[in-house]
């Protein structure tokens, strides 16, 4: 002020300036010299450290927390470089005097060089604010939003799961018609909608093909879809006339608000003649896929959606020639923003024709034409996004039905070759991986029984014959010319082969004749439908079945890793390995069956024998067999499930 030298009238003197800075709401701390000794801190700065004395002390000495949390390094960097630095919403924790738990705050601050009048660097000025409330509010809002998003995603996942439980996971495998289906959930919010499909063999032998679409998404649409699908299946089984069945479906839809305006296309295919009877109610027309100039859409039938005044079922007829492919689909496949439905239908016809000829994505494409057309049409046409569910169902009449399988087995050494040939034959039919694995195991057991019990040491030939019946049921006979021997009252370790066969087939019977025994195994085959995303292809042929091998790893316990098939030709080798690794049962073992491609009853016998000969009984054997593995289901069947341990 006027009384102080160097200060003009109206200006604050140093004492007044110190008073202002001391009361300034933002924190200010000034550090001087190379040691960054604090020479000034206002009340806001002191409040941050809860009254701890740090003025007159070097930064690293007064506030050691700032060293580990990177604050001291930031301030020191400003002093060393002469360049300012900023920290935005740094999380800082400090221990209050006498406290046991650190206090956490968030701070935003600037560190600026403090220069003397001659321009030399004197120290560092730090100024800033606590932003704890703002940051915590934002973090809480973010956490709430993330929780809401997770709840939404869980709800959407539940809807998708519901949709998938209402859709068929498999299609029948038939000798005269190949089938495939893909369903892709809407990409916009992954909320399952009302699309559905079906392929079912009717009592008169015709094949019913169905694709439908309920308006909307979510649980209500999925529930309405499930109702329409169930009602239509029943009507098709009990009402031979297609027009009558659809009229009754329409009447049902009219009484269910969520089902009104649903669309549906139904095709009845005579697999012997190729004759088609079809009707579409507000639904896109089916596409007959053939050569470049021969692919065509079936003629319209003119009916409107279900449950509306325009719903008057009309039935038309056509003929599907052998090797022609019939494609039913929902409008989600051909409707895109900025593109007319006509353009979408034209693009689908061109693409499906190219996919049938394997000209779209030939490398690694499915060999089956129906799988290839479904997969590639869905993949290519949804690349730019799709706001609705996408469903496709393909059927192709086979020009030549698959030939039956015939093979003769003379010894156990030929079992591996039998499994490979059977696996290739089943995959060519379109059977899924579960069917392939189950039938390979069941047939191996049946053949092993004939070799061991029918012929014994005499040797002989076992004949295996398999064919796919019109119903989609596989019938396999295993016959020998040996003599049936009734099992003993106490089978001991044996007698599990028939239980394994029974568990892996729908039906089996044994016919004991004077000139031999015939075992007949039956199982309905399934072709996987692709639901939601990804791809499901039949299991590869078992040409790649690894040879049987064991590897012993010392440890506590000793581990025996088994790979390949454990059957009558390899079970004794497994038993010998277990005896050797356990020092004749003195040591407990951990047996890893993850790599086992088949666990026949002979292998089960070896495991039971080891347990009974082990010094500590059942506790002497721990088995690793992941859920869903080949070995796991057999172990649970034969009473060894309690020995399975996590990997």
UniProtKB/TrEMBL annotation:
<dbReference type="InterPro" id="IPR003594">
    <property type="entry name" value="HATPase_dom"/>
</dbReference>
<dbReference type="InterPro" id="IPR036457">
    <property type="entry name" value="PPM-type-like_dom_sf"/>
</dbReference>
<dbReference type="InterPro" id="IPR036890">
    <property type="entry name" value="HATPase_C_sf"/>
</dbReference>
<dbReference type="Pfam" id="PF07228">
    <property type="entry name" value="SpoIIE"/>
</dbReference>
<dbReference type="InterPro" id="IPR058548">
    <property type="entry name" value="MlaB-like_STAS"/>
</dbReference>
<dbReference type="InterPro" id="IPR001932">
    <property type="entry name" value="PPM-type_phosphatase-like_dom"/>
</dbReference>
<feature type="domain" description="PPM-type phosphatase">
    <location>
        <begin position="177"/>
        <end position="397"/>
    </location>
</feature>
<dbReference type="GO" id="GO:0016791">
    <property type="term" value="F:phosphatase activity"/>
</dbReference>
<dbReference type="InterPro" id="IPR013656">
    <property type="entry name" value="PAS_4"/>
</dbReference>
<dbReference type="Pfam" id="PF13466">
    <property type="entry name" value="STAS_2"/>
</dbReference>
<keyword id="KW-0175">Coiled coil</keyword>
<feature type="region of interest" description="Disordered">
    <location>
        <begin position="530"/>
        <end position="557"/>
    </location>
</feature>
<feature type="domain" description="STAS">
    <location>
        <begin position="560"/>
        <end position="647"/>
    </location>
</feature>
<keyword id="KW-0378">Hydrolase</keyword>
<feature type="coiled-coil region">
    <location>
        <begin position="138"/>
        <end position="165"/>
    </location>
</feature>
<dbReference type="InterPro" id="IPR002645">
    <property type="entry name" value="STAS_dom"/>
</dbReference>
<dbReference type="InterPro" id="IPR036513">
    <property type="entry name" value="STAS_dom_sf"/>
</dbReference>
<protein>
    <submittedName>
        <fullName>Serine phosphatase RsbU (Regulator of sigma subunit)/anti-sigma regulatory factor (Ser/Thr protein kinase)/anti-anti-sigma regulatory factor</fullName>
    </submittedName>
</protein>
<dbReference type="Pfam" id="PF08448">
    <property type="entry name" value="PAS_4"/>
</dbReference>
<dbReference type="InterPro" id="IPR052016">
    <property type="entry name" value="Bact_Sigma-Reg"/>
</dbReference>
<dbReference type="Pfam" id="PF13581">
    <property type="entry name" value="HATPase_c_2"/>
</dbReference>
């Amino acid at each position: 002020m006027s009384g102080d030298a160097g200060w003009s009238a109206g200006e604050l003197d140093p004492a007044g300036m110190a008073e202002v800075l001391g009361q300034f709401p933002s924190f200010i701390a000034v550090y001087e010299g190379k040691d960054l000794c604090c020479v000034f801190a206002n009340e806001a700065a002191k409040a941050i450290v809860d009254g701890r004395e740090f003025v007159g002390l070097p930064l690293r000495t007064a506030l050691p927390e700032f060293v580990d949390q990177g604050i001291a390094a930031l301030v020191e960097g400003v002093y060393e470089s002469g360049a300012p630095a900023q920290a935005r919403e740094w999380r800082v924790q400090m221990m209050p005097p006498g406290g046991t738990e650190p206090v956490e705050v968030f701070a935003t601050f600037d560190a600026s060089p403090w220069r003397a009048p001659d321009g030399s660097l004197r120290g560092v000025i730090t100024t800033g604010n606590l932003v704890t409330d703002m940051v915590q509010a934002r973090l809480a809002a973010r956490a709430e939003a993330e929780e809401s998003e997770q709840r939404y995603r869980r709800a959407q996942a539940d809807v998708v799961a519901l949709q998938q439980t209402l859709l068929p996971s498999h299609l029948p495998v038939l000798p005269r018609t190949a089938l495939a289906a893909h369903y892709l959930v809407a990409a916009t919010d992954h909320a399952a909608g009302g699309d559905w499909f079906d392929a079912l063999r009717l009592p008169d032998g015709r094949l019913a093909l169905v694709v439908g679409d309920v308006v909307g998404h979510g649980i209500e649409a999925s529930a309405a879809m499930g109702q329409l699908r169930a009602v239509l299946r029943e009507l098709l089984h009990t009402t031979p006339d297609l027009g009558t069945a659809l009229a009754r479906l329409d009447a049902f839809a009219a009484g269910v608000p969520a089902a009104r305006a649903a669309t549906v296309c139904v095709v009845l295919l005579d697999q012997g003649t190729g004759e088609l009877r079809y009707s579409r109610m507000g639904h896109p027309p089916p596409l007959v896929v053939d050569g470049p100039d021969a692919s065509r859409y079936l003629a319209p039938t003119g009916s409107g959606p279900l449950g509306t005044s325009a719903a008057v079922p009309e039935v038309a007829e056509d003929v599907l020639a052998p090797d022609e492919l019939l494609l039913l689909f929902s409008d989600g496949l051909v409707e895109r923003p900025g593109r007319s439905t006509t353009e979408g239908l034209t693009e689908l016809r061109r693409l499906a024709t190219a996919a049938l000829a394997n000209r779209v994505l030939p490398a690694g494409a499915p060999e089956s034409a129906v799988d290839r057309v479904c997969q590639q049409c869905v993949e290519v046409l949804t690349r730019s996004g799709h706001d609705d569910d996408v469903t496709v169902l393909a059927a192709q009449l086979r020009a030549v039905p698959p030939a039956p399988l015939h093979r003769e087995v003379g010894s156990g050494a030929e079992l591996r070759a039998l499994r490979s040939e059977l696996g290739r034959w089943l995959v060519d039919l379109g059977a899924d991986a579960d069917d392939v694995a189950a039938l390979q195991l069941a047939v191996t057991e049946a053949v092993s029984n004939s070799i061991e019990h029918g012929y014994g040491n005499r040797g002989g030939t076992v004949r295996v014959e398999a064919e796919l019946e019109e119903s989609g049921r596989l019938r396999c006979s295993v016959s020998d010319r040996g003599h049936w021997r009734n099992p003993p009252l106490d089978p001991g370790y044996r007698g599990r082969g028939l239980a394994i066969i029974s568990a892996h087939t729908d039906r089996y019977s044994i016919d004991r004749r004077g000139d031999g025994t015939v075992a007949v195994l039956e199982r309905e085959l399934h072709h996987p439908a692709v639901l939601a995303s990804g791809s499901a292809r039949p299991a590869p042929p078992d040409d790649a079945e690894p040879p049987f091998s064991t590897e012993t790893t010392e440890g506590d316990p000793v581990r025996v890793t088994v790979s390949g098939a454990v059957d009558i030709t390899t079970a004794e080798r497994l038993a010998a390995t277990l005896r050797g690794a356990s020092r004749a049962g003195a040591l407990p073992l951990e047996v890893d069956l993850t790599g086992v491609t088949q666990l026949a009853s002979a292998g089960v016998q070896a495991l039971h024998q080891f347990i009974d000969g082990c010094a500590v009984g059942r506790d002497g054997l721990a088995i690793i067999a992941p859920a869903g593995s080949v070995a796991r289901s057999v172990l649970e069947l034969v009473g060894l499930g309690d020995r399975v341990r996590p990997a």
